[in-house]
């Protein structure tokens, strides 16, 4: 499979699993095209043209020719200089040759653009009962905070290592997070867990969460108890990075009783507690792995890949559903 095809497929899977729906994604892409066409000639020179087909600013080919043939990939949640050096070391053995490094968490200019994908969260909040204008104003403040925080970062550190060693590299962030968000949302809608202990049981039956529990990092209730009733569940696992701590009261007012997320900072958890929401941390790395595995299941419909899993990732293929 060529690198460009793999990249385009990852984007299309992300769109298919995006809770905003294809109509909204098409509207976003149409607006982006109109914005591009309105730019001056000099402005177009620095414009990221991937934005014309890819609505996820945190997922990009970071280094490598688009026509590169990809058969064996090394995948991790965080792929930094140490992991790039490991890929280079493996490439010294022709039988272990790595064609592509895939990082889940964004690096390079995809990291610089992480803040932009957070706008997705406004639409998801509105979908769960938060007034859209309120959701947008709450998120704009948080988006600005994240943008400023990223400005001084050394974005290209690992990408420079990959370029120097001649190893193609890409990152796939929000498309994978969309996959785990949709997967868990559909699971809870179908199984309708009544109490939080029932929700934990559903999570424990998923291989990635079960393996994480064996490593002493199980899904955990951090507000509420085993016998707390779930009520309406909101899965908070996509949209770049942690949103605003001001959303919890609005979600509670919109009818949400239980939040299921990858992680919650102490400030966010305290805000959720004040809003009397049940909070379950499913697990950060384990949730990322679920999302990546679902995404790779879809990508491999186009051609099987060989995987080397490091930095928290393990390839677990799901059996296709019988028709």
If you had to describe this structure to a student in words, what would you say it looks like?
By secondary structure, the protein is an alpha/beta fold. It folds into two domains: 3-173 and 287-309, no CATH class; 179-286, NIF3 (NGG1p interacting factor 3)-like (Udp-n-acetylmuramoylalanyl-d-glutamate--2,6- Diaminopimelate Ligase, Chain: A, domain 1, 3-Layer(aba) Sandwich), CATH 3.40.1390.30. Helix content is 47%, strand content 12%. The protein is built from 14 helices and nine strands. It has helices spanning 3-16, 22-37, 41-45, 81-90, 108-112, 120-127, 132-150, 157-164, 174-191, 196-204, 207-214, 247-253, 266-274, 284-299, and strands at 60-63, 72-76, 100-103, 169-171, 220-223, 232-236, 256-261, 278-281, 306-309. A five-stranded mixed β-sheet has the order 1-4-3-2-9, sandwiched between helices. The protein has a four-stranded mixed β-sheet with strand order 5-8-7-6. Helix 12 links the parallel strand 6 (232-236) and strand 7 (256-261). The longest helix has 19 residues, at 132-150. The protein is globular. The two termini are 27 Å apart. The model has no long low-confidence stretch (mean pLDDT 96).
């Amino acid at each position: 499979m060529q690198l460009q095809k793999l990249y385009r497929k990852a984007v299309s899977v992300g769109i298919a699993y995006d809770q905003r729906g294809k109509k909204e994604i098409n509207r976003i892409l149409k607006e982006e095209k109109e914005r591009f066409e309105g730019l001056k000639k000099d402005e177009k020179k620095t414009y990221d043209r991937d934005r014309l087909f890819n609505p996820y600013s945190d997922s990009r080919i970071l280094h490598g020719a688009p026509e590169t043939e990809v058969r064996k990939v090394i995948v991790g949640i965080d792929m930094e200089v140490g992991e790039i050096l490991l890929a280079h070391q493996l490439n010294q053995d022709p039988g272990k040759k790595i064609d592509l490094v895939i990082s889940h968490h964004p690096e390079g200019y995809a990291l610089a653009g992480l803040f932009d994908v957070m706008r997705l969260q406004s639409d998801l909040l509105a979908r769960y009962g938060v007034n859209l204008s309120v959701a947008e104003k709450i998120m704009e403040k948080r988006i600005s905070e994240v943008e400023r925080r990223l400005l001084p970062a050394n974005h290209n550190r690992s990408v420079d290592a990959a370029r120097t060693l001649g190893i193609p590299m890409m990152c796939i962030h929000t498309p994978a997070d969309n996959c785990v968000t949709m997967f868990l949302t559909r699971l809870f809608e179908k199984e309708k867990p009544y109490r939080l202990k029932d929700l934990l049981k559903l999570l424990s039956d998923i291989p990635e969460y079960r393996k994480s529990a064996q490593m002493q990092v199980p899904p955990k209730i951090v507000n509420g108890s085993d016998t707390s009733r779930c009520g309406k569940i909101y899965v908070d696992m996509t949209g770049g990075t942690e949103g605003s701590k001001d959303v919890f009261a609005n979600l509670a007012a919109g009818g949400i009783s239980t939040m299921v997320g990858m992680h919650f900072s102490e400030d966010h958890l305290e805000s959720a507690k004040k809003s009397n929401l049940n909070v379950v941390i499913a697990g950060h790395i384990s949730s990322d792995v679920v999302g990546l595995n679902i995404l790779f299941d879809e990508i491999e419909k186009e051609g099987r890949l060989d995987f080397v899993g490091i930095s928290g990732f393990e390839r677990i293929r799901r059996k296709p559903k019988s028709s």
